[in-house]
Automatic annotation (TrEMBL):
GO terms for molecular function: acyltransferase activity. Keywords: Acyltransferase, Lipid metabolism, Membrane, Transferase, Transmembrane, Transmembrane helix. It comes from Rhizobium mesosinicum. InterPro entries: Plipid/glycerol_acylTrfase. It comes from the Bacteria. The chain crosses the membrane at residues 6-29. This is 1-acyl-sn-glycerol-3-phosphate acyltransferase.
Amino acid sequence: MIVWLRIAFALTVIIVVSVLLIPLQVLALRFDWKLRRTLPRRWHRIVCYCLGIRIRVRGTLESRRPLMLCSNHSSWMDIMVMSAVADVAFIAKIEVRDWPIFGTLAKLQKSVFVVREEKRRTGHQASEIAARMVDGEIVVLFPEGTTSDGNRLLEVKSSLFGAAAMAVPHSPTGTVMVQPVSIAYTQVHGIAMGRYHRPLAAWPGDIELLPHLIDILKCGAIDAEVSFGEAIEYGEKTNRKDVSATIAASVRNLLNSSLRGRDIA
């Protein structure tokens, strides 16, 4: 009974806050106010608090711009956690645009929707991402292209790193910063989350969304750790595949460090 009362309270707060902030975000998008970049962070912080997602940050967000963040991806919660930490825009697969609730939220955050299967559109998509970075936005790329089980980093696809290359000629410094980030779900109710409990936080995609969301609401106490690694300068002569491999290795190390409870060297 207490669990359902807590869920009802959390949903009520989320709905009230959404009713207040979403119309303001729509206006901010319509008139391109700077508020459109900062308002989602405030909304996501409130939602994470209501869902019982406690966030710990290790390392520092790169201060230089343009900036692309490259992170592992294990759940829809990654969006909320990362958005609660920084003012970011996401690169999402086109299917997300039509998802109930999350598709609307992605559009309100002005995500860049891409069609990975159509190589002829890759150039245009990368150009849009580059333009957003040059304009000062922090863009988040999930280079795995799909969600994992939360225990490991899948193979990283290098194609969309081309957006960083396109932004280089328009950067005041002639470089674009590419920073590795890991998002790890480390504890549930204060107890280390092992492989057995990892499905509670991870959403590989073969699980229905609504039951997974209800499980998160019932749990009400998940610890997430966001770790920022050392950023790489992407310049005119930088090899995209080399950057992809370096970023993948860094994200993998950051993720393993968080899951094993060890300090990052």
